Amino acid sequence: MAFVWNIVKLIPCLLLLSYGQAALAAVRNNTADLDAIWKRYLAADARKTPTAPFPFGHCFRSAAREHDLPLSLLLAVARGESNFNPNAKSDRNCHGLMQIQWPGTARHLGIYRLAALYHPCTNINAGAKYLRELLDRYDNNLHLALAAYNYGPNRIDRSLRSGDIPKGAKWYSGYIYHHLGKFLKGATVDPDTVIAGKRSPYIPQKHVLILTFAQPFRASGFYDHLRKRAPDLNIEWYRTGRRRYQVVLLYADQKTLQAGKSKLKRLGVALK
User: Fewest CB atoms less than 10 Å from the CB: which of 105, 165, 191, 270?
Assistant: First the structure.
């Protein structure tokens, strides 16, 4: 039985071999366009108000106003960094919703108690303050600012062209843009539509692991592969640590969990 289970677990890995290089090539091509993609976002979509549900709404809206940032951008960073988990902690000593590094970045932002990073509004405001600082530093180049948010401003020189930044910083910019799509879908330039009470309440979703990868392009490629074969499959991929990128099945209750497992099984992916 253990042998059979190991074979089942190998199926997704074997599938990856067939398109892994194509996925890597796609990632490389996309990173070349990220600077232009983010410029289009700032020009066309940055003022749109998300209608997708999200937690800690007053914290995000207040931070966006105070630091003159798009609300959807803050939400995308929080979703990509912690999936809105205020208690998140990384293996690089980053904490909370926006994954603020302790103690260096936190103290730079005026936070001197580690416990304060676990207060949602404090953490969100710190992340927004840092993003505003980085946008000013890089002349409103959001691609470079996000690269520096991930890599540190000392490692992203202001004189560098967007295509010359480290590969890891490039993928992070694309990774946040992936999560931004969650909030641009259905976003509106008419905030009254949202204020009128049409926003759905935020319901946190549980998740179960499908596969863990050591490279982000493999996680992204496998995610795209599953989505292409089953567009209605409720999955996502996240960075969960250094060289750890997980594709997960999202669910709200046991009924949706079993439905998701059945869809994956039909694709040749069996979960425990």
Answer: 191
Among 66, 81, 133, 236, which one carries the catalytic annotation?
Answer: 81
Six token digits for residue 9: 């677990």
**In a 3-state reduction of DSSP, which class is residue 156?**
coil
Domain boundaries, the chain: 2-21+205-266, 46-198
List all residues 6 or more positions away from 152 whose beta carbon is below 8 Å from its beta carbon.
none
Is residue 187 within 8 A of residue 88, CB to CB? The reply is no
198: number of Cβ within 10 Å: 10
Q: Which CATH architecture has domain 46-198?
A: Orthogonal Bundle (1.10)
d(CA 246, CA 10): 16
The count of other CB atoms within 10 Å of the CB of residue 65 is: 11
Q: Is 81 marked active-site?
A: yes
Scanning the structure block, which residue is given the tokens 């700032």? 42
Tell me: the pLDDT tens digits for 239-271?
988 789 999 999 989 999 999 999 999 999 988
- What three-state secondary structure class fits 38? helix
Element (H, E) at 29: helix 2-40
Per-residue pLDDT tens digits for 12-57:
444 444 444 444 444 444 555 899 999 999 999 999 999 999 999 9
